[in-house]
Amino acid sequence: MKVFTNGCFDVLHRAHLELLLYCHRLAVPVIGGKVIVGINSDDSVRRLKGENRPFNNQTDRQFALKSLRFVDDVQVFQEDTPYELIKKIKPDIIVKGG
Q: Percentage of the chain with pLDDT > 70?
């Protein structure tokens, strides 16, 4: 089972971590379950949040998320939405925070 979520994850905070833990809990009961996180590229974050963003570049954001025990893969997408990435990954469950 593939559980997918996405976001900018620029300045990782508790709500992000709770979202990722929730995704992990959905994936864990299934053998081979994976949590895949899509993150907006730096250019995409700038378009969405303004020229002064992101505070952390996509390489650092990707590294931080990959370091979490409840995340299996992190993929950067260039578009403003993860639609194309979702079509490529074909997740079983999509989780959106907020």
A: 100
Contacts of 35 (CB under 8 A, 6+ apart): 3, 4, 5, 20, 23, 24, 27, 70, 71, 72, 73
CA–CA gap between residue 93 and residue 41 (Å, rounded): 22
How far is Cα 38 from Cα 85, in angstroms, rounded to an integer? 8
Query: What are the tens digits of pLDDT across the range 38-69?
Result: 999 999 999 999 999 999 999 999 999 999 99
pTM of the model: 0.95
Give the whole-angstrom CA distance, residue 24 versus residue 50.
31
| CB neighbourhood size of 48 (10 A) | 13
Show the beta-strand stretches assigned E in 1-98.
Answer: 2-7, 34-40, 73-77, 93-94
